[in-house]
Amino acid sequence: MRRPAPVSPPVALTVAGSDSGGGAGIQADVKTMEAHGVFGTSVLTAVTAQNTRGVASSYTLPTSEIEAQFDAVLDDFTLGAVKTGMLATREVIETVTDRLDGVDAPLVVDPVMVATSGDRLLSADAESAYEELVAAATLVTPNTDEAAVLSGVDVTDRESAGEAAERLVEMGAKAALVKGGHLDGARVVDTLVVSDRLRAGRAPRDDDAPDAPGTPDAPTGLATHRFDHPRVDTDATHGSGCALSSAIAARLARGESLVEAVDGGTDFLHRAVRYGLDVGEGPGAVHHLVELRERAARQETVEAVASVVEEFVARDVSLLVPEVGMNVVGATPYAESPDETAAVEGRITRTFSGVHPNRGVRLGASSHVARFLLAAREVDPSRRFAVNCRFADDVEAALSALDGPVAEFDRAAEPDDSATEEGNTMQWGARRAFESTEGTPVAVVDRGAVGKERIVKLLAADADTLVERTLTLLDAVEAER
C-alpha cells in the first residue's frame, strides 16, 4: 500500500449561476480557479439553460438552498478569496451580501447583469440592491454597461471609465476595475482604481507605487492603473467576464497583491480570448485552461525542436547555414512571447565536419527568429516552427522547389519608428511579407541592409514539415552545384 502525499492548495469560492453550455458561470469559474492552482468551491444561485448562442431559460434557486450551500462550504473550508457572478434577483443579492459579511477573505464582485449574447441575467428591480454588495467588495469588475448602471457615469472612453471606477470606490468598494472590451478601438484598455483603504494597516508594497504593473495615473487619494492589450478580432468571448474575475480571485487566494492579480488576470484573459475554444454552433467560448495547456506543451515543443536539430546535423545542412548561424525555433500552440518558444542556445554553426549546435535546446533561447515566428503567428497561428537559412543567388534559384508561395520584405521600406529595434523589424517584416502574397508563405526573404546579412526564413506548422522543406531546399541548392 502506498503512502498518501496530499497537497494543500488555496481554496476559493464562487457564488454564481450555472451555464449548461459550460463556457460561463460556475463551470467557467471552477475551471479557471483549478487552472490557476486553486481549489474551487461553489454556491449555486441559479440554473440557466444556455449555450454559445444564448440563454433559453433561467431558474433562480430558493434562498434557503443558497444558504444551505453557504453553510456547507463555510463550515468546512478556509477561504482564500470569494467571487460573485450571476445573482439574478434582489432577494438573492441581499442573501449573498448578508452571508459574506463575516467571511474574512478578499471579495471580487462581478456584477453580472447581461450575458455576452445580450440576454438579461438580472431583474431590473435588483440593480439597486448591488450597492451594499459593491460597498463590501475588495474589487468590483463591471464592463462599461454595468459600470454605467452602477455608477451613473456613461462610459465612452478611458477617461469616463476612470470616473466610473472612482465613483464605485466612493460607493465603498476598495477597488474597481472597469473593463474596456465594449469600447471601440484597436486596443482593449481596462481601468483599475484602488483606494488607500485597501492598503491601510500594512506597509506599502512595491505594486502600490506609480510604477506598478499596468500604466498608472495618480488621482488624489487613489491609485489608478490601466492595463492595455491588443484587441482580438473574435466574437468568441462567451465567459470572458467570469474567467477574468475568477482568475483575479484565484490569484488573490494565492497571496498576490491586488494589482499583481489584476495584471496577471488581464494577461490571462487576453490569451484565453485569442486562443478561444471553437465549440458549439455559436461563436465559441474563451479558453479557461489556456495557460495550463501552454505550460504543458513546452517540453513537447523543446523535444520537437531537438529532433529537427538532430536531422539537420545528420544530413549536414552546412550549405544553408548563414554567417550569423542557423537557429530552429518552435512555438507552443499558445505562445505569446519568446520565452514560450524553444530554440538552440547559441545557434547552429558550421564546423570542419558538418554542423553542430553550440549548446542544447531551451525555452527563450532565440530573440531574432522567435520574434519573426511570433509575428507570423499573428497572421496564421498554425505556423509553429521556423528556421533561418543563408540567402544568396543559388538559394534564391532553389526556392522554386518549395511547395508554396515565397514572400519577401525590403528593409528600406521600413518606417523609421519601427527600425530602431531588430525585434520591431522582424515583426514589421513578417507583416509586410504576409501582406504581399496570397495564403501563408512557406519562406520569407529578408534581403538585408548595411550590417545585416541576407536571410531566408522557412515556416511550417509542424516539425516534420520544417525538416522536409529545409532538406528540399538543400537538395535543390546541391543540384545547382
Automatic annotation (TrEMBL):
UniProt feature, compositional bias: Low complexity: 211-221
CC terms in the record's Gene Ontology section: cytosol
UniProt record, GO biological process: thiamine biosynthetic process
Residue ranges occupied by any Thiamine-phosphate synthase ThiN domain in the UniProt entry: 305-470
Cited Pfam families: Phos_pyr_kin, ThiN
Domain (Pyridoxamine kinase/Phosphomethylpyrimidine kinase) ranges: 19-203, 224-287
Gene3D superfamilies cross-referenced by the UniProt entry: 3.40.1190.20, Class II aldolase/adducin N-terminal domain
Compositional bias (Basic and acidic residues): 225-236
Domain of life: Archaea
Region (Disordered) residue spans: 199-239
Protein name in the entry: Hydroxymethylpyrimidine/phosphomethylpyrimidine kinase
Organism field: Halogranum rubrum
